[in-house]
Specification:
Blueprint lengths: L5 H4 L26 H16 L5 E5 L6 H13 L4 E6 L2 H7 L8 E5 L11 E5 L10 H11 L5 E7 L5 E8 L4 E2 L5 E2 L19 E7 L16 H4 L7 H15 L8 H14 L4 E2 L2 H4 L3 E5 L15
Parallel strand pairs: 1-2, 1-4, 2-3, 4-5
Antiparallel strand pairs: 5-6, 6-9, 7-8, 9-11, 10-11
Helix pairs in contact: 2-3, 7-8
């Protein structure tokens, strides 16, 4: 959008609208299959969480000008969790009205809402490409608003991807670690103040960051930095955790260049194994890494140099 657009003329704020929906309308751009990488991760890592409750509710926040990615989310989840319910939320009422024809009540619905989640209590919230337009200072309050309303034991998935879904990064925040108090303030057990006093960078536990990419088109892992979540974009500079992570990943990628003869997937897996051996808190197994993913605990506290060798 041009610099004269409403989004850039005023500072975005988490203000309540006419129907108490928190947030601002996004640009609304979307494409079929754009969110396939995050959906695949949700299914592969969170199916047990969803199956743990009857008729689990999933909210897709800010589905945009087309409901296609919400429909895809429902169809993908329904294959592994048949009784799942998915609700697409949009702060733009015209978009909600336009999406009505894609609904399949009661399993798939669309309604008006923002960071307050329209009063729903979902087990999982997918908020992709929603906070990209906001100032970094707005991320904490947005997280707080969503985590206050998420169901006990729930998860918030928040991040960004490119227009065709080849590069993606997202945080996964465990909602079970947050506790609600009065006046819409959310506090974390053992912390001195409101949730929004804490940034995602210093969030105490229960958070991971996942990087995902289409490997055949990837020259080096740090290319994914273009799609870092809003709270990390300005922090990709020397001295910051995310910069150190990406720099180390690039270094591991270069060291594993000989594996390229076996294809980019083998090179990626070898680089991730090298990262783990170097002390980075890498989660998961080769089964997920082969998909072009890597998940790390956040913040990524690095252990001492490991002595394990990189396996074939």
């Amino acid at each position: 959008m041009s610099g004269t657009s409403p989004v850039h003329r005023r500072e975005p704020r988490l203000a309540a609208g006419r129907a108490r929906a928190l947030g601002l309308a996004t640009r609304g751009t979307t494409n079929p299959n754009r969110l396939r990488r995050v959906d695949r991760w949700i299914i592969g890592t969170q199916a047990a969480r969803l199956r743990g409750v009857p008729a689990p509710l999933v909210v897709d926040l800010g589905f945009g000008s087309s409901p296609i990615t919400t429909v895809e989310l429902y169809e993908r989840l329904a294959r592994v969790v048949p009784d799942v319910r998915v609700v697409g939320l949009e702060i733009d009422r015209d978009r909600v009205e336009a999406a009505a024809s894609a609904a399949h009540p009661p399993r798939l619905a669309f309604t008006h809402g923002g960071f307050e989640l329209a009063g729903l209590r979902p087990v999982l919230v997918r908020a992709l490409n929603v906070l990209r337009q906001y100032e970094a200072a707005a991320v904490g309050p947005a997280w707080a608003s969503m985590l206050e309303r998420i169901a006990p034991g729930g998860l918030l998935v928040e991040g960004t991807c490119d227009e065709i879904g080849r590069r993606a990064c997202w945080f996964a925040i465990d909602g079970s670690r947050a506790a609600s108090t009065e006046a819409g303030t959310v506090v974390r057990p053992g912390t001195p103040g409101p949730l929004w006093e804490f940034s995602p960078q210093s969030w105490p536990g229960g958070t991971t960051l996942t990087l995902a990419a289409h490997l055949p088109s990837l020259s080096r892992p740090s290319e994914i930095a273009q799609r870092l979540p809003k709270s990390l974009i300005a922090r990709n500079v020397p001295g910051e955790d995310v910069h150190a992570l990406l720099t180390s990943f690039d270094d591991a990628w270069m060291r594993m260049a000989p594996r390229a003869v076996f294809g980019p997937r083998q090179r990626w897996v070898a680089a991730v194994e090298a990262m783990r051996a170097d002390g980075w808190p890498v989660r998961g197994t080769v089964r997920r890494w082969r998909l072009g993913e890597v998940t790390v605990a956040w913040p990524p506290t690095r252990a001492g140099a490991a002595t394990a060798t990189v396996s074939g």
